Amino acid sequence: MVQKYQSPVRVYKHPFELIMAAYERRFPTCPLIPMFVDSDTVNEFRSEDGAIHVIERRCKLDIDAPRLLKKIAGVDYVYFIQKNSLNSRERTLHIEAHNETFSNRVIINEHCCYSVHPENEDWTCFEQSASLDIKSFFGFESTVEKIAMKQYTSNIKKGKEIIEYYLRQLEEEGITFVPRWTPPAAAPSLETSLSCKKPAASLTVVVPDPALKEGLSSEPLSTPSGAPEPTAGTPDDKLDADYIKRYLGDLTPLQESCLIRLRQWLQETHKGKIPKDEHILRFLRARDFNIDKARETMCQSLTWRKQHQVDYILDTWRPPQVLQDYYAGGWHHHDKDGRPLYVLRLGQMDTKGLVRALGEEALLRYVLSINEEGLRRCEENTKVFGRPISSWTCLVDLEGLNMRHLWRPGVKALLRIIEVVEANYPETLGRLLILRAPRVFPVLWTLVSPFIDDNTRRKFLIYAGNDYQGPGGLLDYIDKEIIPDFLSGECMCEVPEGGLVPKSLYRTAEELENEDLKLWTETIYQSASVFKGAPHEILIQIVDASSVITWDFDVCKGDIVFNIYHSKRSPQPPKKDSLGAHSITSPGGNNVQLIDRVWQLGRDYSMVESPLICKEGESVQGSHVTRWPGFYILQWKFHSTPACAATSLPRVDDVLASLQVSSHKCKVMYYTEVIGSEDFRGSMTSLESSHSGFSQLSAATTSSSQSHSSSTISSG
Length: 716
What we know:
Interacts with RIGI (via tandem CARD domain); the interaction is direct. Interacts (via GOLD domain) with SLC18A3; the interaction is direct. Interacts with SLC5A7 (via GOLD domain); the interaction is direct. Residues 319-495 form the CRAL-TRIO domain. The protein is built from 18 helices and 26 strands. The longest helix has 32 residues, at 141-172.
C-alpha cells in the first residue's frame, strides 16, 4: 500500500531571499538532523543572468533502524538524490528527492516548494508532499514502513525549527536582509542563456510556471518515472498551519496530512461544497484518521443531511409545545474547558408520555436540533475563548429514574436516537457527566451501552448519590458559579422541570402517522440503485408541449451517465418478479427499467439531450423544455471508465475495479418536477429544485452552468 503525506502551508514571516540564505546553511550537513551525515554535489547549473540555479546532491543518511535489519539489508547508510531548482526571478525553490538505495524494492518520492506568500511579498510559504511504496524488503515490509514513517514525521516537525535556527544565526551575524535578484545591466535573455550553456545530460532545468508565483498550489506526489508538475491553485484551496493550530488544535504531521488529503478529495468531487474543516476532522478522529473509512461515513452523513433537510432544521422547525413544556433539557453556560454545557434532567422526564404524545420521530427531530445548536455554539465558543472547541459537555441528572423509564418503546426510541447521533455527529461529545445514578441505572446502562461507540464510552463519568460533590466531582469540570440550583449550586437553571405528560395529550399510532411526523418520510428526494447493465429509469408524461421538466440529483456512489429520451407510446409497466429484467429491489434504493430490450433507439424512442457524465459526489440540477407531448424517460446509467487508449492492455486500476462487485453499483438521490412554461421563471418551487445545497456545514457553495438550446444543466 502506498503511504502518502501532504503538509499544510507553513508561513515564515521573512522574505524569500532571507529564507533561502538560511536554507543553504543546511548543507553539506546539518547537526540539527543527526541522521543527515553528509552530502556531495553531483551536478550544478546556473544561468548566465544568475536567475536560475539548479543543484543536484547525493545525500548520505544514517537511518535509525535495528542493527539486525541493517545487517540483513547489507547496508549501513541510505543514499538519496535531491535536486533543488531555484528561480530567483519568480522567487521559488522546488525541491525533488528520491531514494537511490533499494530503489528496486522501495520507492520514496518527495516534493517541496518555497514561494512568496500571495498576500504579503515579504513572507514565504512552504509546502511538501511525499509518497512511500514498499514493493518488497526481505519479509520486513511492515517494519520498514513503520521505521520510514517515524523518521519522516520526526524530521517534518524539525523542519521549521531548523530554518528558524539558521535565521537566528544569520541575525547574530548581522544579516537581516538579503537583496532580491535583479537582472544584469546587459544580460542576455533567459532563452539565450539556456541555449548557450546546457546542464549535464542527467539534469533537467525546472522553470516553474508564472502562475505558481502565488506559492499555494497543490503539489501532486512524485512518481518513479519523474518529478511531479506543480499545478496552480488559490489561497482558498489551502490550509495554513497557523490556522490549523488556532481553529482545529494541535495535530501530528500525519493527522494534518489526512485532513488536507480528505479535504482535497472533497474539493474535487463535491465541486466546492466542502464541509467545514472542523466537521471533516470529527469524522477523521472518529475513524482513527483512516481516510477511506472517514470518507465513506462522512459522505453517507452528508447525503443523509440533504435527504432529510437537517441543514434547515433550526430555521424551519419549531418544537411542539409539549416538548417545550415537558422535555427537561437545555443549554446552560459552558464548562471549565469552554465547551457548551447541555443539562438533561432525565430522571424528571416522562419519556413514555413524550413518546405517546409526540411519537419517536418528533423526539428524534428535537435531538437533532439540539445537536445542530451544539455545533453552532462550538463555533461561537471557539471565537470567544480563542482556542479550538469542537465538542460539548452533557450533564445528565438521573434523580427520579425508575422502572417507568425502562418502558420498552421508550428504550427503543433512545437506542434509535443514539444510533443516528453516533453516525452523523461523531466526536461532538467531549464529556458526559452522569449524576445521582440510582440502583435501576445499571439495568438501563446494560441496554444502551452496546450501542455506544468505545471512544464515546470512555468520556462517561458516573457518580452515584452525592459523590459528585466530593473530590473529582462536578467542581473539577464546572465552575462553582454556574452549577445548577437543583444540584445545590448557586446558578438558576432555566431548564424545564419536566413532569408527567397529561394523558389527554396522548395520541394513537394512526394519528401520529396521519400527522406526518415521521422525519424519514419528510423528504422530496428518492433513492435509486444503478447497476452495470441495469440503469434506473423514471417515466414522465407530458400533455402540453413546452412544459418544463426539472431535476435535481446527487451521485452518492460511482459514476453515472444521465440521459433523457422521448417516446410517443408508453413503456410497459415494470414487472415485479425478482427474476425479470425490469425491476430490481435493493436495500440502498429501488431500480426500475422501463425501456424494453426490443425497443430500438430512433424507431421506438429518441434522445432529446446529449448524455451527461456525472462523477461521484456531484450535485446536478437542470431543466428541459419539452417540444412534443408524450412520454419522457429520465435515465441514470452506469458509467464505465474507458481503458487507456495508448495500449491494448488494461490498466491496473481497471483490472482491480473489475474484481470488485461493489464497483458495479452506483447510488443516486433525485427529485423531479414538471412545470408549465409560463410558470417556470416565477415559480418558487422551481427555484428550490434548481438549488442543491449539499450541506449547510459547507463553507461555500458554488455551481457552474452549461446552456443548451433546449435545456440548462448546472453541475455543482
